[in-house]
Design goal:
The structure holds two protein chains of two kinds. Chain A is mainly beta. Chain A has no helices and twelve strands. Helices cover about 0% and strands about 50% of the residues of chain B. Chain B is built from no helices and eleven strands. The chains are: A mainly beta, B mainly beta.
């Protein structure tokens, strides 16, 4: 079975600073990878996903993530964060050609300070 | 587009009471899900429905029942609420059983059991 580990439960950062939210996965077969964002008191929405092709994936709101198969990682980055990026971020994995039910990480709370 | 709509948004129950959380999606999706979200635990799947007429247990089904009323609607029932079921509940949907699909979430239902 697949699993996802988000290495940081909370990441505080100042506005306009770069940020990286870390995600590692484990699976014996090929995977699809996702990042979802949850703004306060809202449901989750998709930021970006990796299915195949280029390992650098660009998403909404200036976020990007890089799939690294050798390190089994899918870290999320943004070069300059804004106060409005304060939210909970979830990494998720499914098995390509297998179970479509995603396994979610426990989430990383990004807190952007002015 | 409304997307995924769930009701009620807030509910307080007494231990032993029953209630049903309603969910409807207007995207003509085949698959629907119920998750619960607890601090530090991420999202945990309660039940899912791959298509109209089918339901399956997820990671934490005990104490819950579901009904896939039709293609649009998927309800979650607590027969005898317990304080351990205090949580935020999310209904979600996806197009079908392809593991690369995006999952679309409702805005959540905050349930407190006293």
């Amino acid at each position: 079975a697949q699993s996802v580990t988000q290495l940081d439960s909370q990441v505080p950062v100042f506005e306009e600073a770069p940020v990286e939210l870390r995600c590692n996965y484990s699976s014996s077969v090929s995977v699809y990878l996702f990042w979802y964002v949850q703004y306060p008191n809202q449901g989750l929405q998709l930021l970006l996903k990796y299915l195949s092709g280029s390992t650098l994936v660009k998403g909404i709101n200036g976020f990007e993530a890089e799939f690294n198969k050798s390190q089994t990682s899918f870290h999320l980055r943004k070069p300059s964060v804004h106060i409005s990026d304060t939210a909970e971020y979830f990494c998720a994995v499914t098995l390509s050609g297998g179970s479509y039910i995603p396994t979610f990480g426990r989430g990383t709370s990004l807190i952007v300070h002015p | 587009n409304a997307g995924v709509t769930q009701t009620p948004k807030f509910q307080v129950l007494k231990t032993g009471q029953s209630m049903t959380l309603q969910c409807a999606q207007d995207m003509n999706h085949n698959s629907m899900y119920w998750y619960r979200q607890d601090p530090g635990m991420g999202l945990r799947l309660i039940y899912y429905s791959a298509s109209e007429g089918t339901t399956d247990k997820g990671e934490v089904p005990n104490g819950y029942n579901v009904s896939r009323l039709n293609k649009r609607e998927f309800s979650l029932r607590l027969e005898s609420a317990a304080p351990s079921q205090t949580s935020v509940y999310f209904c979600a949907s996806s197009e079908d059983g392809y593991s690369g699909n995006t999952i679309y979430f409702g805005e959540g239902s905050w349930l407190t059991v006293v």
